[in-house]
TrEMBL record, chain A:
Keyword Transport: yes
Keyword set includes Thylakoid: no
GO molecular function, one term: ATP binding
Name listed for the protein in its UniProt record: Multiple sugar transport system ATP-binding protein
Superkingdom of origin organism: Bacteria
Family annotation (Gene3D superfamilies): 2.40.50.100, Nucleic acid-binding proteins, P-loop containing nucleotide triphosphate hydrolases
PANTHER family per record: MALTODEXTRIN IMPORT ATP-BINDING PROTEIN MSMX, TREHALOSE IMPORT ATP-BINDING PROTEIN SUGC
Domain ABC transporter: 4-234
Family of this protein: Belongs to the ABC transporter superfamily.
Organism: Pseudovibrio ascidiaceicola
From TrEMBL, chain B:
Keyword tRNA processing: no
UniProt keyword Transport, yes or no: yes
Family, similarity comment: Belongs to the binding-protein-dependent transport system permease family.
Classification via SUPFAM superfamilies: MetI-like (SSF161098)
Keyword entries, A-Z: Cell membrane, Membrane, Sugar transport, Transmembrane, Transmembrane helix, Transport
Organism: Pseudovibrio ascidiaceicola
CDD domains xref list: TM_PBP2 (cd06261)
Topological type in the membrane: Multi-pass membrane protein
Alphabetized Pfam families for the sequence: BPD_transp_1
This protein's name: Multiple sugar transport system permease protein
Gene3D superfamilies reported in the protein's UniProt record: MetI-like (1.10.3720.10)
Automatic annotation (TrEMBL), chain C:
Entry-linked PROSITE patterns: ABC_TM1
SUPFAM superfamilies, per database record: MetI-like
Species this chain originates from: Pseudovibrio ascidiaceicola
Name assigned to this protein: Multiple sugar transport system permease protein
Matches recorded under CDD domains: TM_PBP2
Amino acid sequence: MASISFQNVTKSFGDFNAVSNASFEINDGEFICLLGPSGCGKTTSLRMIAGLETPTSGRIYIGDKDVTGLHPRDRKISMVFQDYALYPHMNISQNIAYPLKVRGENEATRGERAQEVADVLKIGHLLDRLPAQISGGQQQRTSLARALVNPSQVYLFDEPLSNLDAKLRLEARGFLHHLQHSMGMTSVYVTHDQAEAMALATRVAVMDQGRIVQFATPMEIYRKPATTFVANFVGNPPMNLLPVEAMVEDNRLKVKADGLDVADIPMQRSFAEAVANNPNITLGVRPEHLRATAEAENVVRGKLFANENMGAEKLVTIERPDAARFTARIFTDDDIILSEDVALGFSSQHISLFDTDGNRLALDDE
Amino acid sequence: MKNFSLLSVRAGTLFFSPAAALVGAFVIVPFFWVIFVSFTNRTLLGKTALNPEFVGFDNYVALFNMETFFTRGQFGFSLILTIQFVLLSALIGQALLGMILAWLLQSTPKYVKVFSESAVIVAWILPEVVIGFAWFAFLDYDNGTLNMLTTALGLEPGDWLLDNPFWVIVFFNTWRGAAFSMMLFNSAFASLPPSYFQAADVAGATSFQKFKDIALPLIKGHVVTDLILITMWTFNVFTPFLLTQGGPSYRTELLSIYTYRVAFKDFEFGKGAAVGVVIMLINLAFALFYLRIAKQKHKGAE
Amino acid sequence: MTLSFQQILSRISFSVLAALIGICFALPLIWFLFAPFNARAELGLEIPSPFTLKNFFTVFENTFAMRGLLNSFIQSIGGVVLVGFAATLAAYALSRSDIPGKKSITYLLLLFSSVVSGSAAMVPIFLIVSKLGLIDTHVAVILVFAGGLLPTAMFILRDFIDGIPKSYEESAMVAGASSMQAFRDVALPVIRPGIVVVVVWAFVNIWGSFLIPFILLRSDELMPASVAIYSFYSEAGTPIVTLLAAYALIYSFPVISLYLFVNWKFGFRFFGGIKA
């Protein structure tokens, strides 16, 4: 196992910067998720670690070694591909053992190791089949087995679960989490599915347009999104965002918008000036922090737009006078009765604030 | 830093070189050499075989000599004959028949479809010499199948190769090549979603209306592709030689056959090369047109 | 669903028309279906009585005819090996390496191959082959065909390889393979169906062709079957129809069986989609 270090890495394709000046450190044994929409540079970053793309500038280290220009085969890495890349002409055993074959292991050892890994992944009974003869979930495990068969410094995953159906994906996700936990391997995992990132990662790097927007633990990203982009991308349904007008009095923030009663919020002095210069800010509240009551510190009002029953919870959406929508995630066994006019309440400690550029405004306790 | 690639430039060049050498020697060098030879009086035998002289545009002037241009056995006659041949046998014969067949065979019972499709395709895949021989027997004056049929129908038997050689090669080439157009249009029709036609059925359209209003506009690209490709092939085709040898008295001497005669029967390489250059120029025009359309289509698909 | 009278009528007329066209296409070949099995066959249509394979045995005993088939075989196999080998490597390079200008190379190759047709280039091809001292050799026929078929073969194969995910080779390299190992162990087996199609296409093209060997070969010992058949029926005097019919059928056999093979194996309706 080894750490990974990105130092001012940029990758351009012609005029397009897929990754712009990215610098970060991944510690030995961490499970990092690169999260973002398609085209954000997450896959390119992963492929640069693998050596399948060469950075336009900057350096990449695995452990203490500068691997920037190294061929993939010299990097001691393993990788699981989105399409699994199982060789259709080799059986499962040969597929799993291919990394051992090219490294010159003899046939007996290869068979043994393939059997061992396959047993761990519960595909030991399929070794003689061809990839076309097994199910999608089994193919996914085969590609995982091929990555695990040879001890590597770093394990790379390129959206490995995106070709599975929803139920299998949950199962495979749990399995991966278990595996990483028990083996403690340094892993980098690319996904556009925020739930996957939250579930698996020790830390998540949220990327947007070639830049790393936030690099933090899942909980921090969830609770304190660094930008409106992160707030919008992480969480399902995403954080409710509402443009508001702000005023500062005595280091307390007053927020104004139609149909919105918000208590004063204490804030740091340093931001007072910023808000004073640019009073148009954004207020964010996560859906599960809203309750169907007007008796709260803060209340947002609107007309009932949709009331969706999800089983364990309800998604209640209201439409405000300015046509903005607010969704609440309400956990209740009771059938709450909603009239046409709905008030949703929330506590001040759950508020996020973002300045005009979408960057988080730190409140006094941050 | 050198960008990673699956195959390094050096290995790629190495991989590419055998093909490059072969294509270079037998496609690209001939292209330039034929131009060079067309400006000489090179012959197959005799003094000028070894030491050809540079004669400028003499060969071209001879080809385009207006006094004899339209005479049988001359370049102009062959050129016009070839154009007529392409129009009648490729554009009208193959493309139209192929289109009709492809449309008909969509809604015919399976055994009719298999029979007709097989007959058309067999005509296309058999080696050209076998086809030549089969038609030679088919058209035989005394015993051939065709005259047997005409006699049975109470008509006069015809000596087709002698009386109507041009129409023979037109029908011959239509018959020979219709399969390509049929299969191209077949797959074009198959690529259209069935729901388009079901919607038209519900609206009460006839088969001809469905063809004209729905299918044809949607496969326009295929039609253009087909027309250009079969034009290029028919323009260069040598197969009728196997049936008529260009005769009788040059009446079926297409440009390709004319080149062959000038170069390998009359042994005038310089003049044969000049004809080759003209053919290549015409090919070039078609090819550039085709590649441009193919490129546009490719872009449209992205 | 019930059909109206009009619809039924139109369906029937469609079928009749299609069948008629099919019959017209079959007509010139009906004779060819019977004559090989008729010991007394002439150019007239006649149902053989009795059906006999005697004509085929005559062919097998005719050394000139058999040598023609052997020559066709030598030239086709030689050309196919060369085309398959060179086209696979070149197409792989065009698809996977960053050799500069590969797009323009492909474009130029296509352009040249469609411009330099057999009829346009017969003079210089003859001159090159005679300059190389290869007139009247198998090698000449093989090389000329290889050169002429390669651009299209490369193009078909490059398209095929472009359609194969790069992750195959990438995963092999991450696993520790070199470029050559990834090509040999992973890419080549995956490309194989494409190579088969190209090879079959090239074989059928060379096997059936007439003009090139007709120009480049002189001696009877090297003539492929195509030229042999042509000289049999075109020369003055009445051809030996019995022998020739059986011979032509034997000569057609590989082409028909390969067509059926490709059709069955790949459902590849566009056999020779781009004919040379």
